[in-house]
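Deliverable D2.4 — example input (structure tokens):
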């Protein structure tokens, strides 16, 4: 009887699960959101309205959602992975039919008074589905080309749907996330070398078929001076703002480029330029270090997790955060073309904020249940 009590422990209570939360991750999330609130307050001319107060409210709601998700048994999310992917795929397919248009692109679905981007939902759903697939796939089949066709299609189909919106930046993000999970699942590096070669060959073939605005963005990335008042305006003003900040910046609320409305999309995609202008090189590096710390904390959580599903779930969330931050900072600094990717927890945007916190809630769930290898009674194998 004594031995049976060891092997049949009662499931942990909600209070016990809450004590297992990774507080380092929560602290970094709060710090990044605090930076976002300060930046949103500044670009509004020293006002909580219209962006900062909504940003704070969304984060508080999302943080509550994260904690609720974290205490749900991990096997529940394993079972919901493919239905979540199917739902996100259906939503993406509906965008061209009943989606709403803004800024020349049809990317949103309206749900009563609310609107959301299915492409943001798909990033998290893709991570869930790929993690579930590789959790159930025997290790000796991971690099088998026949078994890799399924995850390749799972990545490619939503990428095509998103590119048709058109949203090249989000499509590239999905490719980065999917490819990263394939690599961490153990797929042979030969496949990635082949994919890279395919992309290099395809670029000259794809360029003529880009939308006019996408082609202009690529051209302005290569030489912003070719159209300084048109396609090159965004990156030119962004570089001016970043450079004018110097080492320590112009001071909080002291940014001229943002305060005088020279910066386009100053509260969303180009919010990092406000940070660079007002807080300078030191402040910019501090923000980048916070993102690096968040990714490092997530990877540490993944290493501590017993199940393959949990490890890939956390690693996928780390890839999403890294991809968002790297592409956004590269975009506003002129290192990559302007593709419209927000900066996590700092840029204003409801769908991106909530989906990121949902994904991190799944990561927290995997960490809270890190000793569960998902092979016990009642759990999908």
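Example output (designed residues):
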């Amino acid at each position: 009887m004594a031995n049976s009590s060891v092997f049949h422990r009662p499931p942990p209570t909600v209070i016990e699960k809450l004590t297992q939360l990774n507080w380092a991750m929560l602290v970094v999330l709060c710090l990044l959101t605090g930076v976002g609130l300060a930046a949103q307050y500044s670009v509004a001319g020293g006002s909580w309205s219209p962006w900062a107060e909504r940003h704070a409210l969304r984060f508080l709601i999302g943080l509550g959602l994260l904690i609720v998700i974290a205490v749900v048994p991990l096997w529940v999310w394993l079972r919901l992975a493919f239905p979540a992917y199917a739902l996100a795929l259906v939503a993406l397919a509906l965008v061209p039919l009943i989606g709403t248009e803004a800024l020349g692109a049809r990317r949103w679905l309206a749900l009563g008074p609310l609107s959301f981007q299915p492409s943001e939902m798909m990033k998290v759903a893709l991570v869930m589905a790929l993690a579930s697939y590789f959790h159930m796939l025997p290790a000796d089949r991971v690099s088998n080309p026949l078994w890799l066709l399924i995850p390749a299609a799972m990545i490619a189909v939503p990428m095509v749907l998103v590119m048709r919106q058109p949203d090249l930046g989000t499509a590239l993000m999905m490719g980065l996330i999917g490819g990263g999970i394939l690599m961490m699942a153990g797929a042979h590096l030969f496949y990635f070398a082949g994919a890279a070669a395919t992309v290099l060959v395809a670029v000259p073939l794809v360029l003529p078929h880009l939308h006019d605005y996408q082609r202009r963005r690529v051209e302005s990335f290569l030489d912003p001076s070719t159209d300084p008042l048109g396609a090159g305006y965004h990156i030119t003003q962004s570089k001016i703002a970043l450079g004018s900040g110097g080492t320590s910046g112009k001071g909080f609320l002291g940014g001229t480029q943002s305060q005088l409305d020279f910066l386009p999309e100053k509260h969303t995609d180009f919010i990092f330029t406000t940070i660079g202008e007002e807080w300078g090189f030191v402040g910019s590096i501090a923000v980048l270090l916070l993102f690096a710390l968040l990714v490092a904390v997530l990877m540490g959580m993944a290493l501590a997790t017993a199940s393959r599903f949990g490890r890939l779930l956390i690693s996928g969330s780390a890839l999403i955060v890294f991809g968002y931050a790297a592409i956004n900072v590269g975009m506003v600094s002129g290192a990559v073309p302007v593709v419209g990717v927000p900066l996590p927890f700092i840029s204003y945007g409801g769908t991106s904020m909530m989906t990121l916190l949902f994904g991190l809630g799944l990561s927290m769930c995997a960490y809270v249940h890190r000793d569960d290898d998902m092979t016990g009674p009642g759990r999908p194998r």
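The CA atoms of residues 195 and 201 lie 10 Å apart.
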